[in-house]
Structures are given as structure tokens and as C-alpha cells.
């Protein structure tokens, strides 16, 4: 069996930046075990698989360790593959996923994703969190999936040197660290110790939490964000109430064939 594979840098305007994802189009689903082994072999934070079902596409995402319920950068990368390599011409791509229907459109090379908005509730800043992050945040929140630590400045977020062993013991899938930005409305970093890839370069799904939070705090619906990981990436966001728009560019790093 041979399968086409693409590696795409999402939320990037040039290669070696943004967040890389592997994308594998399928005619029919492979077994879960085989897709998991392919994701392990690819070694990216997420490998996306999709199957066309008439006017929409079923989409699933696998980390090297397990299947995940929502991934922004691999969704953007999947849309990029459809438009750039598979002759897709409709104005919107509809993906059916574990998080419901997701919509992606493209205009002037910018991919815009329609994702759910996630709320947060304040929780106490604990010594456990401070030790895990190597710094004490000003505020701490628990979201619908992730924990979020808020700092006073971009410099503090950039300077974080977390203990990933301790981060892996915190609640939530991801630990999002965020602050007001110097040249952007807000900045963030996302730590996901349980995936074996301690820091996610650019995390679209984290912005399901970040965008509603900063929209309310800053009193504006249109936001420009930057994830300040080593690779880095810019996200153009909009708060729509129960939904958020998360937009960015994508570039192809590699295309090839998997032989099974």
C-alpha cells in the first residue's frame, strides 16, 4: 500500500517557522492502530488523516501517543493540502471531527478557521504551578480542556523555563502561558509534556481559550496574537461569541509517499 504524505508548516509564511504537521489523505479509514503507528513514525506533534464524504471531509488528528479531540494547526495544514495539491476549489472546506463541524476558508493565501470558543474559570495560583513553570503567574484559570496561566508581561512568558516533569502532572491537556504583547494584542506559549514534544510551536486549539479571554479583557473582538516559541507564529483572530476565527498562512515543506 502506498499513501501520499505532506508536511506543512502552519501559521507560517516561510519554512522552518510555525508548527509542522503531517497530512495524509485517505480514500477510506485505516485501522486506529495503524494510524497511530504512522503518527509515531512521522514524529510530528500531530498527524492529520482525512477522508472525503461527499461535500465534507472526516478529519482525525493523532499525536505520537494518542488521538486528540481538536488540533488547529493540523486542520489548517489539511485545508492547505486540499487547496494546493488536491484541486479543491469550493470557497469553504467543511471538516467533520470529534469537536463537531469545523470550517476553513482561504482568501489571498490566508486560511481562516471557524472553531468553538472555550470559557475559563479562575482558580488559585498554587506553589505546584509556580514550581512547574519556574515562575509565579499573576492569575490562573481552568478551561474546558487546558489550564491557563496569565503573566504581566511578554518578557516573562518568553523567559519561562518550565520543569516538564512537573508540568505533566498538572490538570488539563495543555498548560497555556500568556501575557499582553508588545507588538501584538497578546502572546502565548503552550506546554504539552504528555505528548513527548514538550512545547508546541503554535497551538491553534489553545486560541479557542485565549481569544475569548483576551477579547473580554481588552474590550475588542479582532485580535492579533503571536506564539513566542522558538519557531514562533502569528495568528489573526476574531471573537464571535460562541465561536472564534483563527487565521494564518501555511507553506509546504515536503511531499512524498508512505509505503506500508
Automatic annotation (TrEMBL):
Keywords of this entry: Isomerase
Source organism per UniProt: Pseudodesulfovibrio aespoeensis (strain ATCC 700646 / DSM 10631 / Aspo-2) (Desulfovibrio aespoeensis)
Gene3D superfamilies assigned to the protein according to its UniProt record, in alphabetical order: Diaminopimelate Epimerase, Chain A, domain 1
The name this protein goes by in its record: Phenazine biosynthesis protein PhzF family
GO function terms (MF aspect): isomerase activity
Protein family (similarity comment): Belongs to the PhzF family.
Active site: 46
Pfam families, per database record: PhzC-PhzF
GO cellular component: cytoplasm
Cross-referenced NCBIfam families: PhzF_family
